[in-house]
Structures are given as structure tokens and as C-alpha cells.
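Page 42, continued from yesterday. The earlier attempt failed because a stray header line got pasted into the input along with the sequence. Redoing it now with the clean sequence only.
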Amino acid sequence: MKKDTVLDKAKNPKYFIVTVILIAFGMFLVGFDANLFFFGGTFILSIIHVNPLLLGITATGFAAGITIFSIIGGFVFDKITTRNGILISLLIITTFSMLTGFVTNEYELVIYRFLVGFGTGMIQPEISAFLGDLRPGMRATTIAAEGVAFNLGLASSPYIFAQFSTATTFNIPFIIAGISGGILMLLIFLIIPSTYKIKERPKVGIRQVMNRSLFFMAISYFMFGIAFFAYEGYFTPYLISSGISKEVAASIVSFFGIAGMILAFPGAFAGDKLERKHIIQLATVVMSLGTIVMFLPHINPLLATIAVILLGGGYAIYGNIQAFAQESVEDAWIGTAVGFLFMIFNIGAMIGGPLMGFSVSDFGYIYAGIISIVTPMVLSIFFASLAPKVPKRIRTV
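This time it went through. C-alpha cells are written below.
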């Protein structure tokens, strides 16, 4: 008897929508956990009496976990049961996100964040490849669902942290993350078949997957990784050091996610209908403008909000880079290509946090931002421009 596969069942429009929502919501958990920690990081460190410089080191450990396991997650999609790979990743993220709320020293913090990164590294390419292959003709639009979910997590977590943390405790926001992950795992297990599709035999080996299009886009993503993690780790302290209150800072930071949710589907639709490389280039330009505004002298809440909207909106449109990577290789290596893309991104992320941390201590926030955020974003434009175009594939697998 033939097994039901995800691709077979996804031909039903209602099941397709349910599947996209459930799988994309894994990225809500990733965004929610990440911003809980990055928004609340300096407060967590002060509560457990640890030097604030550890924030950059912890961010590097988180990125290291993602980097090491990104390519594994992509390979799991290509070669192993997809649903179960996602469930294992969610279990790791959920467990160690919740344990983050109970850390008492720097050793626990670094270990737990590394292990959250482990699960995050695996789930990012798994979800991207899973969604992208459901409907190849609308690849970026389907992948955009994960961007919306991720940005919803980013946008909601500062409010949750501000609302449920106190001067001496921060466990409840991370418990909320754990409960959310548990519910999501149960729903995926009950609704999504374990077999994604009938596996194809690749026409070329893994060493032939690399090509100039994937390579240069990966370098663009590497530069963005430096800038993004420098921003994530230090933007809130920068705002507060500029005289903006914690509550106002939370509102400003949330606009990154709000802008991302608004522009994710329009940006993806444009990428599916127009030349995808040009849409990616546009996104890097918009994000670069946002970083420039971010570090203008005499920052105020209005300028900071404009900067975050530009960065968040550009980031949502930049999500086309995942579809570009998938279209640059044959179907049998889609997961591996996306895993490679995320691995390179997260090598940049490992550099971004410490670079910003050391630059802040030596030069102050504005010059540190120019070094660690503005410059890499401008270089991201350059490398995206070097990538040869790739043809869109619209066939159903």
C-alpha cells in the first residue's frame, strides 16, 4: 500500500494551508526565543551577576551551534525523514530555550544557548526546503510564511519579556517559549505525514552542488550575518545608552518584526514574478539605508523606528535568497544548498556579536555600528550583485 506523502496531501488547498502554517510556526519559536534572549540579554546578565561582555560571547556560542548543524539540517531534509527531523529540532530548541529561563551562572547560559543554536541550525534549512518544495511555482511566497512567523516571534518577544520579567526574575518568558514549542510538536506529529516525497536520485554529487550563483549569494548572506547579529546583540543597549527607556526601546525593536510581517509576502511575490536577483539587491540596499539612519548622530525614537522599519522590511524581502539558493541546484540537493547558505550566514553571525562588543568598548556605539553593521551591509550589496542569475523552476516534484 502506497504511503501518504506530504506533497500528495498538499495538493488539497486546505491541507496545503494547514501544513504551511504548522511548519512555518517553527520559525515563530526560533524568532521568539532569539529575541527573548537578545532583547533581555543585558538584563539577564545583570540578574545573574555576569559581565555584560559575555553577551557577545553567548551570541557567538548560539551562532556556533547554528553554524555547525545548519548543513546537517539540510542534509537531513534531502536524505532522511523530514517531519521527524523537524520534531527533533523543535524538541532541542524548546528544551534549552525553557532552561535558559533558569540559568544561574555564565556556564549554564553559554551551554544552553549553544544547544538552542544546535536545534535552530537544523530547523532553519529543514523548514525552508520543506516549504519551498511544496509549490515550486510559488517558492518564495510559500517560504515567506516562515518569515512572517519568524518576525511575529521577533515582534512579540520584547513585549513578553518586558511584561513578565522582573528586576530579579526572567523565567516566565522562557517557560512560555517552552509551552509553545510543546504544543507545536504535538500538532505536527498528529497532522503531518512522516514521508515528505519519494526521494530522487541526484544527477550530480555533493561537490558539484557549489556554483557561482550560490557562492556569491552565500557571501552576501555572510556579510548580512555579521551585521544582523551585531544589531541583535547591541541595538537595545545602544538605544538605552542614548537615553531611551526600556519600554520605548521594546516598542522600537518590535517594528523590525512588524515591518517584516507586512512586507514578507509582497517581497516574496515580487521575487516569484520578477527577476529574483534584482529583488534581493533591492533588499540589501533598503537594509543598508536602515543601518545608516541607525547610526546618525543624536539618535531619537523617531529615527530609530525608521531605521528598524527599513532593516526589518528589507530583511523580509531578502528572504528571496533562500528561494534563489534552492533554484540554483537540482531538487535532490535543495536542503543541502539551503543548509550551506545558513551555515555561511551563521559564520558571519559568530563574528558580528564579538566584533560589535569589542568595537563598542574601544570606539563607542556609533563608530562600532559603522564598523560592525553599516560596512558589512554595504558589502552585502556588492556580493549579491556578483551572483549570476538562475532560472526559476515551476514544476511540481
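Notes: The radius of gyration is 20 Å.
Reminder to self: strip header lines before submitting.
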